Amino acid sequence: MNRIHTLFQNKKERALSIYFTAGFPALEDTLPTMQAIEEAGADIIEIGVPYSDPIADGPTIQDSNMIALENGMSLKKLFEQIKDMRQTVSIPVVLMGYLNPIIQYGMEAFLQKCKEVGVDGLILPDLPMQQYLDEFKEMFDQYGLSNTFLISPQTSESRIREIDENSNGFIYMVSSHSITGAKTGISEEQISYFKRVQDMNLKNPRLIGFGISDAETFTTASKYGNGAIIGSAFIKVVKDSKNLNADIKSYIQSVIQ
Questions:
Q1: Strand order across the 146-148 sheet
Q2: Which of 143, 158, 232, 242 would suit a FRET pair with 116, their CA atoms being 20 to 30 Å apart?
């Protein structure tokens, strides 16, 4: 059992995962941002590994990726920044990234490094399930890392059940078939999708992401899943911040009030 499993054993609802881009807005902001996220009361930290072509992400996160890369962020630098994170960070940490830089780094070397520094799981949106099962699942299991797949309103019931069967952390429910940060608020159409998946009684917990930005949307999403993921709205807070620690805490506490 890693920290993700322990979290959802103890917290069945209103789990808040906060996404931010490593090395943004400044290169050395990664660890201070993580510490502030935990101190503010969030439940999971999702670190975005900057990539030049983040296909699932909207302009806000794309811009943060480009700035982080210009700052000099890399996988090697990220692992240096978080090598001692478990001295000050106790909640689950998930890395979200794309396959290309990880394959270049070496998948097994990457997974080994994740375990070494205390990462609990991965979200790799462009990793096909069959490739994961055929080539990587054994390695994920060996290093005690959970792999999170995404589902959307267009995902068929059979596919959702296949994802549920082959997941061992949580399922990332994309609230709409669009990029991150594309819309605000939650529509009736989205709620019917949330209910449909809720009624499937999946074995894995579900976190809802895309379009979650404040206390209202967080509360609504949490009625139909085990909690929610906030990314673009948090990135905007960080980008505009004059006092990173205070602004992170103020924002997260306003969401979970």
A1: 146-148, 121-123, 93-96, 44-48, 15-21, 227-230, 206-209, 171-174, 150-151
A2: 232
